[in-house]
Amino acid sequence: MRGAGRVFSVVVAVVSACVLGAVLPQASAEGNWDETATEFLDDGTEIQVWKAMENLDRTPNLASTLLSREGFLTVKGIVQVRPSAQATVNAGSVTVGLQIGCQVDLGGGMQVGAALSVGPWVSFTVSQYPGVTPGVGANAGGTVTGTIRPGTIAVVPLASKPLQGGYGAIKLSNIYIKVDACGGQTNIRTYVIGAVSTSTDDIQVPAYGQPKWL
After folding, report:
1. Residue 72 has what pLDDT?
2. Domain for residue 12, yes or no?
C-alpha cells in the first residue's frame, strides 16, 4: 500500500506539472525544407517523390484553453514516374498525409484542479481537401477525426489521387488542424507516398517532413 501511494503521488505530480506548467500557445509560423526521395525498380523505372511548400501557421485556440492546439498547414506532394523501355506502368498514386503525436494524454474524464476538466482521450481534427479521395475516417463534414493515446502516433491520410501520364500532384492549402486534451508536447510530421505498379514490380516510396510542434 505504501508503494502504491508513492506511485499515485508521482502520477499526480506529473499531471500537475503538465497542467500548471503549460502556457497558452502563441501565434507563429514555421516553414520546412523540401524533401525528395528517388527509387529505381529492377526493370529500370524511376520514381521520384517530393514533399514541398510546407508551412505551419500556429494560432492560439479559440477556447483559450491550455490543453488544445490549433494550426493551419500547407503542404504539396508530387510523384513523377519515368518508365524504362522494358516496363509498362499499370497504376500509380500520390498520397499526402500527416502524423500526429501527443506526449501526455490527460483524458479519461480526469478532473484537474477545481474548475478544469478534460474529456476522454486525446482527440484530433484535420480538415479534408475537396476534389480528391479522402483518407480513412473521413466523414460528411469534411474532416478526419480520431483518437490517440499517450506515447503513440496517429497516421492520418489526408488526400490521394491516381497518377495521370506518370505524374500526380496534390496541394493542401491552409488545412485546419486541432488537437484537444493534450497536456504535453504535441508534434506533427507530414508525409508523401508514391505508389507505383509496373508490369514487373510494385513499390511505395515515401518522403517525410521534419517533425514540428503544434
Report:
1. 94
2. no
